[in-house]
Amino acid sequence: MKSRLGKGAAGPVQAFLDHGADFVVRDTLDSLIDGMRELPGGDALDGTRVRLEVEARDREMDNDFTKDAQVAMLRSARAYRGDRLVRTASPHKILDPKSGPLIAVKLHILTRKSLGGIETDLSGRALGADGQPVPGLYAAGEASGFGCGGVHGYRALEGTFVGGCLFSGRIAGRAAAAAV
Ligand SMILES: Cc1cc2nc3c(=O)[nH]c(=O)nc-3n(C[C@H](O)[C@H](O)[C@H](O)COP(=O)(O)OP(=O)(O)OC[C@H]3O[C@@H](n4cnc5c(N)ncnc54)[C@H](O)[C@@H]3O)c2cc1C
Questions:
Q1: How far is the CA of 165 from the centre of ligand 1 (A)?
Q2: Which pLDDT score is estimated for 25?
Q3: Mutate which of 108, 110, 113 to test ligand 1's pocket (most atoms within 8 Å of Cβ)?
Q4: Which member of 100, 124, 144, 161 lies 3.0 to 4.6 Å from 148 by CB, making a disulfide possible if both were Cys?
């Protein structure tokens, strides 16, 4: 907590800045874009577009009535003291040299959650195409249709997946133990 209240990056963030293969840290936007383009696949990056987006966002910092969702949410979050102190940086223009250096992070697509996997019965037994249990095969967690968010149906609640994963694992494990 202390490190989040002070100036500069917290230790884990600084480690990413120093060693992260997907992190680029530079003093100017041009060199930042050059650095991003040097990352694998970075040549697809349209530097002109990046500059236009950054400058457009910075213009909105001067607009008290901005419709820029990110700037508006930042200002809204800071109305609450807790978020003001530890969860948000004080608003500034990205290209303000006093707020440097500039940091770019290459993002990778990952599967955060699945809402459906192998169909099971309520004992975690995997069902085959004929709807019958496949002997000796169980599924739990994300791999199971009922596990994780599947417990909640189509409208899976954020933050509730691990519970369903553990629960479905417990059920499948007990069923497997009972079967041997
Ligand atoms: C960024 C992020 C944030 C999240 N935040 C939350 C949250 O706040 N609250 C919440 O409840 N849920 C959250 N979730 C979802 C939750 O973390 C997952 O639903 C849960 O961890 C899935 O558990 P699991 O055991 O089913 O699968 P996993 O944790 O994915 O485990 C599957 C394991 O199988 C291994 N594996 C894969 N293929 C093979 C193979 N061929 N042979 C052997 N091993 C293999 C993998 O390496 C992995 O260790 C988040 C997920 C992500 C990605």
A1: 9
A2: 97
A3: 113
A4: 161
